[in-house]
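idk why but the lab printer keeps eating my pages so im just putting this in chat instead. protein + nicotinamide-adenine-dinucleotide:
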Amino acid sequence: MKLCFIGTGYVGLVSGVCFADIGYEVICVDKDKEKIRRLRNGINPIYEPGLDELIQKNTNADRLTFSDNLHISLKKSDIIFLAVGTPTSKDGNSADLSQLFSVVKQIKKIKKHKIIVTKSTVPVGTNNKIDKILNTKSKKRFSIVSNPEFLREGEAIKDFKFPDRIVIGSKSKSVIEIMRKLYRPLISKGASFLSCSLESAELIKYASNAFLATKISFINELANLCEKAGVNVEDVAIGIGLDKRIGPRFLRAGPAYGGSCFPKDTKALITTAKKYVSPLSIVSAVVKFNDERKKYIENKIIKLLGSNLKKKTICFLGVTFKANTDDIRDSSAMKMIPRFASLGIRINYYDPSGEKNFSKKKNIFFFNNLYSATENIDLIVIHTEWDEFKNLDFKKILKKNRKVNIYDLRNLYDTNYFKNKKISYYSIGRP
Ligand SMILES: NC(=O)c1ccc[n+]([C@@H]2O[C@H](COP(=O)([O-])OP(=O)(O)OC[C@H]3O[C@@H](n4cnc5c(N)ncnc54)[C@H](O)[C@@H]3O)[C@@H](O)[C@H]2O)c1
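predcted complex ->
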């Protein structure tokens, strides 16, 4: 079976490379010619641990190729995966499906039978629409499958190769069996295989993300209470997480959730629910709380800086929405930094994944050395939980500063760690 991935982004590239690594012949297609040119030259366009090596290995083995020619790639392949972006529309709430439907339009030109698998996250009913566009009552050239992706950036290869579950939505039993065969190498290592309707598969993805966003917001809101009540949120998280019905994961208090999925998917789910006149009040409360959390953290930072903001410098350690990725989509740092800079506060920032593109650069300075970024500053904000921030050399930092405030949004240090009176340490939900 020859596979084609349309959209060579975080999902399409990782999935395509991993399928090649389990032995399939894969073409990764993207309309971004520069991205394809770089991939052909062995340059990985995204930061994802372990991905460079797998691209190299599978390109050398002739199982993995890259193309910007959609039509030829479609013709050569048996199973076509749609992995294009489904960002938030201009209305700020619904999913923008324009990338997806522009590809569907191209697929319609193909004359031979193909299996079309939607990996992109799409609202309930989208795959049925694709079915209606591609197939007429008399001619059923295309088999439609909904196969949502659950990988996490930063751990994407492990997540792809050892998924908790593989969800396949389809109207056809024989196509489900083809998909089961395709995924057999992962199923044999323990992944659960769930087949269901197209609509169920679509909703499983949104419901998963909304549930995880709820868990994060739940512990973040409890962290606010802990700060006022003198309770340690980490003890609470451990205490509730030991209950098997709750589980310990996604109970780490921190900044507002961000990234390319939770913010857009929670909003798109609320929009879908409104369309069906079945409002989701809990998910709506989660989105509202998450927006308020950004302001809560911002206000706390301003308070820590005190008066005379125009003379103050903040050092941001990490700006990506999580560690081990270069993805800054909907990262809270990318919103906070320009706002602080517009108040006249100088921002130094360091991120292991490199410099980022701020539309206005006034007062914003990138450093490619962590300790240079911490010179002559008033406050360090630990925004992202990169490993290299877990063991900072505070002696070195104090050499260039008389006193330092640290606001650790990831609780990377024990509250008793700082014996030095020149360091004031603040964290999330801990006395
Ligand atoms: N990023 C994640 O962690 C993650 C996890 C699970 C699911 N998803 C979902 O997977 C989908 C893809 O997400 P992503 O983060 O990989 O997006 P992305 O923006 O990184 O990648 C999308 C790619 O599609 C390409 N593209 C757009 N239109 C095209 C066309 N007509 N022809 C060829 N290529 C085209 C773009 O150039 C881009 O490279 C989204 O629906 C997202 O919600 C993402």
